[in-house]
Amino acid sequence: MKRSALIVDDQTDIRKLISITMEGEAFDLHEADNGVDAWHVAQSLRPTVVLLDIMMPGGMDGYQVCEKIKTDPILKDFTKVILLTARAQKTDLEKGASVHCDAYLVKPFSPLELLETIDRLVAPA
Amino acid sequence: MGLRDILELLRDEVVPPVNYFTSRLAEVPASVATSLLDVAGQALSQRLYRLADLVEVFGDDIIVSQDRIELLVLLKSVCSELEPRAHSMGVRVDLQEPAQSLPPIYGNERLIRRALYECLDNAFIHSRKEVVAGQKLRVEIRFTLSGEHVLLSVRNQGVTQLAVKSQDELLPFATAKQGTEKGSTTRWGLPLVQRIVGLHGGNMRLNTADEETVQVLLEFPTGAPQRGHVRMDIAQAQRYAHDLAQLMSRRKKEAA
């Protein structure tokens, strides 16, 4: 079964950049530009990994989507969540831990760092 | 010296001595005089902070930061802070918690706190006056989630005397109407609330349907500001460019 990744960011350029980075990594790539859509896609897609921006407009931010995923009986153990954020204060990291994210990458992040984090969390295809 | 320096001086140099004065009052045997001085000192301190915030939000270099704000948590904190004041004024605060969890809002937590404080304080003040025997004074706080906005309603019930006939009356620094008390009571708090909410992309509305109910509605956009078409952060682009060669090298190795 091919692995799938859901890229969630309200900035189009960031989504494109992550998609380019992950090309050739044996993932089906999907995108969402807000938290509410991301949660709906996650429920239907059951992605292997979610790359999730924190600060997004609309009804749910990244922390809330992560919390939903990590309390969902089907997704919580299967789907790995990597939070992507420009916010790196202690309280932000603690908030990420409180919603049980699997990793936390601070922007600007390196594409290699991103791939290494995915490699660490997700078993090869 | 810029406006920001003056504001810092006001907050850092003027307010602390006032706070020190009121804290030292606690060491003096209690009396009517010390009690009055304490109330006056606290009121002066609050007004200085409020003045600094008012000047700041109407200045040109206002910076709205991107704090993650959980409105309910912040509101509860403001209610706790104002509880003694509400009690002393005989006002009961009825905070109805929302049925569903609210999305966060993003902005300047200190300023949003100020807006909530002023909004509640305004409700207390206008519940307080013209009290008749047996009149129950109550401030109701409700949340409604509407699409991508959260609506906060603060309604004071009981005899009120706030009557705002036009939005012009919400402009700060406006001259108080001679011979009326109403003009002066709207000059500080609500203009500040309106400005702060506006700076965060929201709206404030005021309903004074009858003489016993005043409702202030604060509408905040949830989540971060829209930025989908904003170009990627330069630092992020540079980081990618820097690592691109290594990324290509990884690809080649995997392909080999």
How would you describe the overall organization of this protein?
The complex is a heterodimer of chains A (125) and B (256). Chain A is built from five helices and five strands. Chain A has a five-stranded parallel sheet with strand order 2-1-3-4-5, sandwiched between helices. Chain B has a five-stranded mixed sheet. In chain B, strands 1-3 form a two-stranded antiparallel ribbon. The N and C termini of chain B lie far apart (64 Å). Chain B is built from seven helices and seven strands. About 3% of the residues of chain B have low confidence. Chains A and B meet through helix 1 and helix 5 of A and helix 7 of B.
Secondary-structure map with pairings?
The complex is a heterodimer of chains A (125) and B (256).
Chain A: E1 3-8, H1 12-22, E2 27-32, H2 35-45, E3 49-53, H3 62-71, E4 80-85, H4 90-98, E5 103-106, H5 111-121
Parallel strand pairs in A: 1-2, 1-3, 3-4, 4-5
Chain B: H1 3-25, H2 32-57, E1 67-69, H3 71-88, E2 92-95, E3 105-107, H4 109-128, E4 138-146, E5 149-157, H5 182-185, H6 189-199, E6 203-210, E7 213-221, H7 234-255
Parallel strand pairs in B: 2-4
Antiparallel strand pairs in B: 1-3, 4-5, 5-7, 6-7
Helix pairs in contact in B: 1-2, 2-6, 3-4, 4-6
